[in-house]
Write a structure and sequence with these properties.
Structural class of chain B: mainly alpha
Distance between the termini of chain A: 71 Å
Radius of gyration of chain B: 25 Å
Helix content of chain B: over 70%
Order of helices and strands of chain B: HHHHHHHHH
CATH superfamily of the largest domain in chain B: MetI-like
Number of helices of chain B: 9
Largest sheet of chain B: none
Number of domains of chain A: 2
CATH architecture of the largest domain in chain B: Orthogonal Bundle
Number of strands of chain A: 13
Largest interface: A-B, 30 and 33 residues
Helix content of chain A: 25-40%
Largest sheet of chain A: 6 strands, mixed
Number of strands of chain B: 0
CATH class of the largest domain in chain B: Mainly Alpha
CATH superfamily of the largest domain in chain A: Periplasmic binding protein-like II
Radius of gyration of chain A: 22 Å
Shape of chain B: flat
Structural class of chain A: alpha/beta
Order of helices and strands of chain A: HHEEEHEHEHEEEHEHEHEHEEHH
CATH topology of the largest domain in chain B: MetI-like fold
Number of helices of chain A: 11
Oligomer: heterodimer
Strand content of chain A: 15-25%
Chain lengths: 300, 275
Amino acid sequence: MDRRTYVKTGAGVIAGGLFAGCTGGGSGGEATETSSGDSGSSTTESAETEAATTESSVPSKVVIGSDIPYRPFEYETTSGELTGFDVDIAAAVFEDQLGIDYEFKPTSFDSIIPSLKNNNFRIIMSAMTITEDRDEQVDFSDPYFTAYQTIVVREDSDISSTEDMRGVRVGVQKGTTGAAAAQSLKEDLDGELEINEYDQIPDAFSALLNNQVVAVINDNTVSAEFVNGEGEGQVRFVEGEGAAAEEGENAPPYLTLTVENYGIAFRQDDDEFRERVNEALATIKDNGTYDEIYSEYFSG
Amino acid sequence: MADSYSGAPAEANATADGFFDDQTLKYLGVGLSSLFALGVVLLVLYILSVQVDYGLIPTILPQFIRAYGLVLGIVVTGSVLSVTSGIFVGLARVSKTRITSGISAAYVQFFRGTPLLFQIFVVYFGVPTLWPGTFPISNWGLPTAIISLTLNHAAYVGEAVRGGIGAVPDGQMEAARSLGMGYVQAMREVVIPQAWRNALAAVGNDQIILVKDTSLLTVIAIPELIQQFRDVNSATFDPWTPLVLVAIAYLSITIPMGRLVEYLEARSDWGGESQ
């Protein structure tokens, strides 16, 4: 065989393979289409359509940035159907109240605010806590959910208070308030806390099961889904009184590090649309739709 | 380029339309590349003067230095292990024994044929669940980094070495064998020294890719350089300050590595002329 040809062909195959690997890996930008229930019209327009309609205060279709999966707020069922608390709220607010289409666009959480500002989507619904830092970058809707930062450990763990966390390694998701809570816990423990930051929360839970971290700090409802689901019998919440009890709220039974409110994030020049969404949120809270959706996901 | 063809005057090379002759093309090239360079320099100056928040640097520098040290450690360990094992993969690939060459071919097919990110996930998330009970190694991130980078790059180095051996003229092996050397001795003393020179550029290229591949480790929570960028960016919403630091950090590893490869190539050049 002619050696030169062989080498060239080989190089071509390698280059082709590498190229395919690159393009395959970066497919995160593809939008997840959500069919709109009873109206019959499906949201087939591409995400780019949204950019053109940015000027109007209420678009004909809203593209929503979201970090998927974040069970039970936004996740895909095993058959690939997008569902979750945020998704149902979006259906109630945008489809039923405002009469517009919506589409969820997966994005990574730690870059979700820059993505919003770069016009990659119109709003963020991603179980996002309203914080001062974020409020300087975006405008939030009225709060639509209350959550607590909690600690999950393996069943056989002897951790029963925040003081027991001294010197251990915890898993969190990058850029989340769980990561922020871990950081402030680290300061309380004089820096004696190691923090592993994962891309997505299921990775942190895998790491917990695989003995890579001793605890996971994350929002209570999301952790509860794992504790009562895949992790049942293997992991548990750290119990005790915490931030929620201090603030006199009807505290959950487990130790809470912070009390937080979720909001829908808008760009800062989007006041009119934000007002309309706030009105719609108020309506679904009044007419019982919100409670219906709430009890579907958080029955306990 | 036109100047290097001495003798014929430039006019003689002019094409029929008289525009794209050697001289104009040369000036066009100079003009375009200068314009490009000017654009890049202006952009970099703008970023460095307006976008970068120098007040932020002292706060974030310690974590970047720690990350830099970590990446350097992973790179050195990964390089040594992947080049060493890659040489054996390459030797196995040219083996005349069916089993050895077949298995090494399959190895290369798999590790070159699947993304490194996939291999990292296999080692980090997959392997611990195979263990009956709780996985005993509680800091599996770094071992995962070394194992996956080594397995992946050993395949590429192996192919480079195989190519290097293939490029040595068959006569070299035949001559060595006819002098009474055995296969191993002929390989070690005649073929491999020449093959190594052939493979050097490809191996060096691969090792530079290894440096950049450490950025994938951010997904398994290794506090490497990209992770520092993501931390700072999500906390301050300032992308350029950490981006500039990340660029400096990677280039300060890859550029010296490139120079080292060039030096090694020059040293092992054909004929061994003194430089």
